[in-house]
Amino acid sequence: MVKRILTLMLVVILGFLSYPISVDALTPLKTSSNEAVIDFPNKITFRAQLQAEEKITKVVLEYGTTQLTCGDVIAKAFPQFTPGTSVKVEWSWDMRQSGSLPPGANIWWRWRVTDANGKESVSEQHNITWLDSVHDWQTRSAENLRLHWYEGSQSFADKILQAAKGGLALNDKSAGLKPEGAIDLYIYSNYTDLGDAILYEPSWTGGQAFPENNIVIIGISTDNVEWGKSATVHELTHVLVGHLTFSCLGDVPTWLNEGLAVYSEGQLELSSQQQLDAAIRDDTLLPVRSLSGGFSEIADKANLSYSESFSIVKFLLETYGQPKMTELLTTLRDGTTIDEALLAVYGFNVEGLEDAWRESIGAQARAAVPNPTATPLPTYVPTIAPISGVPLAVTSTPFAVPTSSTGGPATVPSAPALPGFSSEQLLAIAGVLTLLCCCLVVGLLIAGVVYFVLRGKTARRADQNGGQNA
Question: What global pTM score does this model have?
């Protein structure tokens, strides 16, 4: 009896886990018009004329971007409309509220309606590229690269493209980093044009990598090609690192990410090498652990942070080889801390790495730091900003979270609800937790049934024994 009940419980739980949470209706939705109009970089407006045999009582716009996420996340908007068999709907995704997408991002959308009988219909999914129409964009492709530019000759584009190809080859050889799909590079002719393409970014930004979207954007003038070639390789490296280490659990310290990017450019510039040499000589090197987060906004400290990161990564690669570096990155992807990953791969933690690195470059030994004492801290309660721009970072790799502007409730918040997690990650985690809670409830119910069945069986035996004794 118990065996049968346990088997039944297993079947029920497995059936619950395999049951789809939502099933898309297969009935096609008729549309006499369906378009997306881009007002770059401010907003994109979705418009359509939707038709059905019965009166349409509910309209939902489902939309999103093609990018790496921890799970399938669909943003929804609820436009205002007058019910009828033919309705006109319009809704705008305002980037000034959500934060801007990178130029070249793919946006998809579809309409879902419900009629007076409760029948659902879904339109065909459409796609559009989030890009300005001001510039006359040209494209050249090679291997896993697509270069887009609008100012300069074919020769200019070829030089940047060749540098990008060389960067891919070097990253593959030195760190085992490979592209996953085609990477789009958008080359703006100057910093002003680049700044105009992305909202809420500092004016000094010269280039950005968006690993989630497979996109790099850089401002390169035709008379600054050499810098442009190095910057292209640098940002491409961030995309490759982002691909290899992408997960909902892992975190790559800044010194490792930036160190690999600078290493991919080649040797340090003379001024950077001189600054690093002076820090070694004067014993003013920054602690490696302090380079795990964002770099300083003070120019000298920021430059030294990049140079030190290069030197640390150079030490790891040239001392232990490429396979160890690849193993370190994949270990971080699996959710381990940097200390745990370093111990597993190299046999030392961050402080041990700093000791070995300092010895290799002829620097003085690391100053001993007393063991920290645990201090109680208040629990951090995040504040959710209703409208926020993209936060500043040493190397910007942001992505915008779709939000509703007007016309109904939004299903995706405009800002992360917890530090260090994106909205997609939080939604995926919430879904998993909900599923686990449901499974727990089902298990408890079935366990209760088992308990009462066994209790009843025991009571019957007791009654029988009592009758026999009597």
Answer: 0.70
